[in-house]
Write the structure tokens for this entry.
Amino acid sequence: IKANILANRQDKGASAEADKALAIDPKMGFAWAAKGASLLQSGQHKEAAAALDKAIEFDPKNTRLLIQRASARLTGGDFAGALQDADAAIAINPLPVAKALRGTALAGVGRDTDALAELEPIDPSLLAQLTILELRARLRLAKGQREAARSDLDLQIAQKPNAMLWVLRSGTWAPTEGDRADADLEDQGGRVHAARHLPDGGEGAVG
């Protein structure tokens, strides 16, 4: 019970408490869930997905568990697995967060048009919290939706600014608006220079 309480509180000690419970009885589904949630919070995404596999065996229709595993799989690069989890979660309860993860997974498997269609109706403030708003901006920009992409980037910058977002924003201006693009870059100074030397995706990449 303590492990489950800790997991609900997002306490990093939940994993150790869950291990104690599982040593007594490895069939405690709630303990696997607590362990998975704790590992996910601490950034151990592969281990979190494995623990959540066990939890879902005991509770296969638990939307929260499916969403958590989708998140863990996305970060670990298992886009097909994340898509499967998101689809399963949506079939049970079509929560916006599940749809946001589905859109991200669709982009990960190269289905950009479907990804944008999934992400378009979602509240941008939620996408910003999930740091997925940058992805929607990229998808919109690829479709020539410059103003919509800029709007997304402005909100993401307000939530969690970084130089790469400003570099992306500079690309939302039309060729005839080069002075505005230059202003975006110049305002960032050295941070933009550093971002230009990051690998593709940079500091604010999703997944």
Q: What stands out?
A: Residues 1-7, 190-207 have pLDDT under 50 and may be disordered. The two ends are 32 Å apart (CA to CA). The longest helix spans residues 45-58. The CA atoms of residues 97 and 126 lie 8 Å apart.
